[in-house]
Write a structure and sequence with these properties.
alpha/beta, Glycerol-3-phosphate (1)-acyltransferase, 7-stranded mixed beta sheet, 7 strands
Length: about 260
């Protein structure tokens, strides 16, 4: 006969579910009025619109800390350059999409599929931030759009941010690193800043109940794009991020044993 869950575990699960419900309610009751605020400030200059609009993701990050117990620490912030850059980040959770625009020292420009613009309320806000939205059906033409728009955004002093794996990955896993971000960096001459983040440990993808803990955002040294092919640059980014992920969450990755090492026998 299977053992029943302990009263303590059951109580903890119920408390976690209650916190998740409270957090969801907070998201809903704040996004609707904020969407109308975004529409009201639409005539203002973009930098001012940006500062007003990112209030909502900042509220969500703070609410996650207060309600869910999800804190954070940032390592390597001194590596962020004082100039144009393409940020390429690990993507495990919705948390980093809220955190990055809220706490990065420069205005960010996400590259995302245009379908997000059709979302009620949330889509209104991002539509007014002059970011780069793409039609994936256009194939190669989609990248040319990203390259052209990316050069303009970088010239405005903004940072381009992309998730090279394309979608959220499970903790301990790795998706295929697409070359779009590296190609953009090579095309514009901007350096790439790799970022590792273990947000999935506490805010898993597609999970309603989150877990309290401290998310680590680890920023790596900029990688110069000059003189590199997009493939070589992409490989360097992948190597740094995945190596750093094994330092952040070593228990989530299998230990590779070198069979030629006599200690393995």
């Amino acid at each position: 006969m299977a053992e029943s869950a302990s009263p303590g575990a059951t109580g903890e699960a119920r408390f976690g579910a209650l916190r998740a419900v409270i957090f969801l309610v907070f998201q809903v009751v704040t996004v609707i009025p904020m969407a109308f605020v975004c529409l009201m400030v639409a005539p203002l200059p973009r930098p001012l619109r940006y500062r007003i609009t990112i209030a909502w993701p900042r509220w969500q990050v703070l609410a996650a800390r207060l309600i869910l117990g999800i804190r954070w620490e940032v390592r390597g912030q001194h590596y962020l350059p004082d100039g144009p850059a393409v940020l390429l980040s690990k993507h495990q959770s919705a948390w980093e999409t809220l955190f990055y625009p809220s706490y990065m020292p420069r205005e960010l420009c996400f590259v995302f599929k245009r379908e997000l613009l059709w979302l009620p309320f949330f889509g209104w806000g991002i539509a007014l931030l002059d970011m780069i939205h793409i039609n994936r059906r256009r194939g190669a033409d989609a990248f040319e759009h990203v390259a052209t728009q990316g050069a303009v955004k970088l010239s405005q002093g903004r940072w381009i941010i992309m998730f090279p794996e394309g979608t959220r990955t499970q903790v301990g896993s790795k998706g295929r690193y697409k070359t779009g971000g590296a190609r953009l960096a090579v095309r514009t001459g901007a350096p790439v800043v790799p970022i590792a983040v273990n947000s999935g440990e506490y805010w898993p993808r597609k999970a309603f109940i989150k877990r309290a803990g401290t998310i680590t955002v680890s920023i790596g040294p900029p990688i110069a794009s000059q003189g590199l092919t997009a493939e070589a640059l992409n490989q360097a980014v992948e190597h740094w991020i995945e190596s750093e992920m094994r330092r952040l969450s070593p228990e989530r990755y299998p230990i590779i044993i070198n069979e030629s090492d006599p200690r393995a026998s």
